[in-house]
Specification:
The structure is a single chain. It is built from 17 helices and no strands. It is mainly α. The protein is globular. The two termini are 20 Å apart.
């Protein structure tokens, strides 16, 4: 117990318990009530039947068929299962998101601890726990659920590579696939998977298996979003969101440029101090020539920039769209804080 301030398990448990408060309250919150109601609507329709994951249904289409071209309803399906087991309730999605986001943060810590040491892993996970991850980690929305699954998958891949246990890889593939299916922007978190496979010292057969696993995880995501979802839209005409062309997206981002900047400077990490630490961490990574960190940053940030352009003004107008980038930002902030000349200054910043 004397080491509790630096034991991440204490903070994981604390954040979990804090967010259990009021978890069964009515689904009217300060923000995103509609998005949570939409999630529960699809889940209720799955529970009432038919349980058809290929045709998620809403109650918004009027006289038209109510199948909607949306993300894969994996999160909604878990809520539907809870309804079957325990009866109707609106807060199951909150509990599921809370459990997976907490496990994702724990996996994030385990992944970083082996690669960066206990101090950086603790700081990064501490920042993550109090970032936008805290706010959206118990909403009936698939965002932290999908990102959490992908963090767990990365942890499992890392264990598979360095312990030679294939069971970890077999666990990682379906978790990563489900995470990407439930929210495609979160797929950017798979960049470290490929980079881990290409590290020096990894045996050829292990590298081949890990890259094959990555292909298996990505394939259903590509099929859903680039074949099946357009098919649902053409067939039924109901869309959850409306991607822009790159030119249209750029115009929308310029229009809301102040809001866009705020999403990075505060909404992501919920702290100007953490954002400043992130900038310092980026500077140190480039200055020291940390090739691995530079590749991870580019592998996640560049495809995410494409998603931002495709979303257009929807991105700055919705604070939770930045969630897939938050773990990377937390790691960069941790690298910045860990480099401070005194441990006292790091504790003060935290």
């Amino acid at each position: 117990m004397k080491h509790w301030p630096t034991d991440i398990r204490f903070w994981l448990l604390l954040v979990l318990l804090v967010r259990l408060y009021g978890i069964t309250d009515p689904p009217l919150e300060a923000s995103h009530s509609w998005r949570q109601a939409f999630t529960n609507m699809v889940a209720r329709n799955l529970a009432e039947g038919p349980f058809d994951l290929l045709q998620p249904r809403t109650d918004l289409a009027g006289e038209r068929p109510d199948v909607v071209a949306s993300e894969f309803p994996g999160f909604n399906a878990l809520v539907a299962v809870m309804i079957h087991l325990f009866g109707p309730a609106h807060w199951y999605g909150r509990l599921i998101a809370l459990i997976i986001s907490t496990l994702g943060a724990w996996a994030f810590h385990g992944l970083l601890e082996r690669r960066y040491g206990t101090r950086v892993a603790f700081i990064a996970t501490f920042i993550l726990l109090w970032s936008a991850w805290f706010l959206y980690g118990r909403k009936s929305m698939p965002d932290t659920f999908s990102a959490g699954l992908l963090l767990i998958a990365l942890f499992a891949v890392d264990r598979s590579i360095h312990r030679g246990v294939w069971g970890w890889l077999l666990l990682a593939v379906p978790l990563a696939a489900l995470g990407g299916l439930c929210k495609i922007p979160a797929i950017v978190l798979l960049a470290p998977w490929g980079l881990m496979a290409m590290e020096k010292g990894v045996q050829t057969r292990v590298r081949s298996a890990v890259l094959a696993g990555l292909g298996l995880a990505v394939a259903p995501v590509l099929w859903w979003y680039f074949f099946w979802q357009p098919h649902l839209l053409d067939t039924y005409g109901n869309a959850l969101y409306f991607p822009r062309s790159l030119a249209e997206g750029w115009t929308g981002l310029v229009e809301y440029r102040a809001k866009l900047l705020e999403r990075f400077t505060f909404s992501a990490l919920m702290s100007h101090v953490a954002f400043a630490a992130m900038l310092y961490g980026i500077w140190r990574s480039f200055r020291s020539g940390d090739r691995a960190m530079i590749l991870v940053t580019a592998g996640i940030a560049l495809p995410f920039a494409y998603f931002i352009l495709k979303a257009g003004n929807v991105f700055p107008l919705h604070a939770y769209y930045i969630l897939p980038l938050v773990p990377l930002m937390a790691l960069l902030a941790a690298l910045g804080l860990a480099a401070l000349p005194s441990g006292t200054w790091t504790r003060v910043a935290l």
